[in-house]
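Catalogue entry: protein

Sequence with per-residue tokens
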Amino acid sequence: MVKSSPRNRMIKGNGLFFPILGFASIVAFIYLSFGDLLNVRYKNEINMSFVERNGTNFVVDGKLFYVNGWNSYWFMDHAVHDHSRPRIRAMLQAAAKMGLTVCRTWAFNDGDYNALQVTPGQFDEKTFKAMDDVTEQKVIALDYVIAEAREVGIRLMLSLVNNLDAYGGKTQYVKWAWTEGVGLSPSNDSFFYDPSIRIYFKNYVKTVLTRKNTITGIQYRDDPVIFGWELINEPRCITDRSGDTLQDWIEEMSAFIKSIDNKHLLTVGLEGFYGPKSPKRETNNPEFWAADMGVDFIRNSAPSTIDFASVHIYPDQWFKRKSLKGKLKFVADWMHSHIEDGDQVLKKPVMFTEFGLSDQNKGFDPSQRDQFYKIVFDVIYESAKKKGAGGGSFAWQFLVEGMEEFNDDFGIVPWKRASTYMLITQHTCRLAKLHGAATPITGNIKNICNSKCSCHMEMLIDWTYYNSVEFLLVL
């Protein structure tokens, strides 16, 4: 949790805050006077190529590409409103200074506040162009997120629906079908097998993939700033523990996406549990319950339409009695097991698309989170040294100042703790040195890797400026 603000430290320090505030006032005035013009200029676009897969590795322009990434699920939601929109650029620019390469974020909000999809199938051209409509505001918000990422040079992994209820999720699709009298069952697992709901979801997916960005003029399916698509966040289908229902859905939906967009990478969005027929269910799963979630890491990741496998890491959510030492040992074993699967069975990259350690644990200290991050980074690095299947990792989650209400047990402002900041940037630098790997395109890697204290101080100055502008915009 955030305990203090960089703004307060600047006031107590050498007096830099006040001239910065004066400059911020001018910037705020320009923004308020000419904001509509500023929003569409985007002159500093960075040339990007699509990320591709070559066996167990990601490649860009023929060079190996390793992901040091993070989650900021909140981008699209915050892009809707003027007062919160600057947070997207602030987070992207901060990530660029750490050499981060990909952000995973939501490309869905189904029937919820600021919904992108208010009702199923309501995405025609008239809806897109209705500037005073809440739905149109939300679509433009996603356009904005993608355009901002392109300008900064950060790629995006976009998730298309939630297994959980947050932001609508599969439960909202089931409610829609049930309300319209076409639903087969009120069970939220009917999302995976109800023909009407499958049509709803396909219509949504097609609309997103073929969407022409109103800022850049590029269709989403043609935009290399998008690293790839994720079918669903953390799918589970406990009403069919055999896994057949979910597998059928994955195969149909992944083939459908590839029929529309064969340029981008695609993953499922799994937590990584081994199913009831897997020999690893007893030796590598967190506990016995994990084999009964209707999923199986190997089977779900195997279709040719799935380009890379995805895994999550939440040791303190999966175990209630293990010590910290035991949890950290599990993390290393869990990662090694899945990378081994990628190397030997799937022949595909494996990405750890969420990893987090709760600050609600008894006796929690931030140094424990640093230990956890270091293990994740070390395992990825060891795999990368051997050109193995460990393609990268995404911390859950990164925030900026003033977002306490959007935090959970796992969120951090990474530059608030120097040791965490250094862990992240050091991981960037050692990955960039491997095998002539593609380096972050957001700036000079030498500046990131050779700087020790100056980059952290620069971050604090930037944040004082950002908070000043945000405060004035609210007024």
Summary: The CA atoms of residues 28 and 148 lie 19 Å apart.
